[in-house]
Amino acid sequence: MNDTPALPDGYLLSTDRDRVDAARVHHWLSTDAYWALGRPREKQDLAIESSLNFGVYEEGSGQQVAYARVVTDFAVFAWLGDVYVDRSVRGKGIGGALVAAVREHLRPYGPRRVLLATQDAHEVYEKAGFTPLAHPERWMALLFQLED
Description:
With 148 residues, the protein is α+β, with helices and mostly antiparallel strands. It has four helices and five strands; from the N terminus they run βααβββαβα. It has helices at 22-32, 41-49, 94-106, 122-127, and strands spanning 11-14, 52-58, 64-72, 77-85, 113-115. Strands 1-2-3-4-5 form a five-stranded mixed sheet. Strand 4 (77-85), helix 3 and strand 5 (113-115) form a beta-alpha-beta unit. It is globular, with a radius of gyration of 15 Å. The termini are far apart.
């Protein structure tokens, strides 16, 4: 796709895992993201360590304002998850630009598919080229019960 939206002026994207503000990301996800409410910090840290991370940062302050991570083999498959934009900067196009940047970062690896799940942000992902599964009846999931 050639319609990759750019980040707004004053923001930059990085895939440097060491730059991720793990405490901030954990706070966002464990308190404000329906899919990760209550996620323990140790689990989040392991997820960051084991993933390809994307952060969006304010240029002046360096403060992280958005996050996404990808689980991938860098060959045929990728899963996009934990996409989050801080409430204070929503509506500026950061989410769409972040998802498009993930798409373009993965493109050279040639994965057959990039999957994600969303409850409420379909329009953000559709703009980046995501579509509903063509044959959802072919897909299955193994769900583990979390221990209390």
